[in-house]
Amino acid sequence: MTSHPNRGWRSRWTVDRAKQEARHGPSGLVVRFARHDEGGWQGDAANGQEVAQALIERHGHHAAVRMLARLMREAGDIYSQAAVA
């Protein structure tokens, strides 16, 4: 399991609970969270357009779509873990 390509993904994120946001260091993606009606968290990419464009230029459209979806999922996971702690 040591050869997993996304191993250590948590270390690439920083969470600021005061600002209610998660920031991905390598891409610069900033996801801001607000409390959802059902008690969970709803995330919105504050600079999603810019990050998406940079990913498209570097990796192509198809890969960028998958990467952005993964980054949003990671942001939700890391923020939820930090909010509980």
Question: In words, what does this structure look like?
Answer:
The radius of gyration is 13 Å and the shape is globular. The chain has 85 residues and is an alpha+beta fold. It contains 2 helices and 4 strands. α1 crosses α2 (61-84). It has a 4-stranded antiparallel β-sheet, with helices on one face. It has one domain (9-84). It has helices at 48-59, 61-84; strands at 13-16, 21-24, 30-35, 41-45.
Question: Can you give me a brief rundown of this structure?
Answer:
By secondary structure, the protein is α+β, with helices and mostly antiparallel strands. 42% of the residues lie in helices and 22% in strands. It has one domain.
Query: Could you say which overall geometry the principal axes of the C-alpha atoms support?
Result: globular
Count of separate DSSP helical elements: 2
Q: How much of the sequence is in beta strands? A: 15-25%
Strand order of the largest sheet: 1-2-3-4
State the total count of DSSP E strands: 4
Structural class: alpha+beta
Proportion of residues in helical segments: 40-55%
Radius of gyration in whole Å, from Cα?
A: 13 Å
Uncertain residue segments:
none
Distance between the termini: 27 Å
Structurally, the number of domains stands at 1
Overall pLDDT confidence: 92
Main β-sheet: number of strands, strand sense, barrel status? Answer: 4 strands, antiparallel
